[in-house]
Structures are given as structure tokens and as C-alpha cells.
Design a protein that fits this description.
Blueprint lengths: L1 H27 L7 H30 L8
Helix pairs in contact: 1-2
Length: 73
């Protein structure tokens, strides 16, 4: 049971850090003088990175629950 609690705490901390980074990038991105296509490219790359981190979090939860899932990373 303590393994699951540790995983949940690490997931909460990871999501908090991820949320702060997401907020900072979305607030600072319009201040950078780049053409609009580059803003869109940066936003897409950010979303892909966030999606990979969320998949990693889901795999960690499944691993803590005892479900064996092959890691794609």
C-alpha cells in the first residue's frame, strides 16, 4: 500500500510542476517576437511533451496497481 501512496504523491508533484511550466510558457510565448507559425509549432511541441508525460504518469499508476504494461519509452 505504501508504494501506491508514494506513486500518487510523485504524480501530484509532477502534475503541479507540469501545470506551472504550462502556465509560464503559455503566458510568456506571446511576448517572444516570432512569426505566428513558430508560435504554433512551439505550442504543438509543448502539447506533445505534455501528452507523453501524462502517458508516463498513467503507466506509473498502472504499474503501482500491479498491472504489467510494457513501457513505450
Amino acid at each position: 500500500m505504501s508504494g501506491i501512496i508514494g506513486v500518487l504523491i510523485s504524480i501530484i508533484i509532477t502534475l503541479l510542476i507540469l501545470g506551472i511550466v504550462w502556465y509560464a510558457i503559455t503566458q510568456l510565448l506571446p511576448l517572444i517576437p516570432l512569426p505566428p507559425p513558430f508560435h504554433q509549432i512551439i505550442r504543438v511541441i509543448l502539447v506533445v511533451i505534455m501528452a507523453l508525460i501524462v502517458i508516463w504518469i498513467i503507466l506509473a499508476l498502472l504499474g503501482a496497481a500491479g498491472v504489467r504494461v510494457p513501457s513505450p519509452f
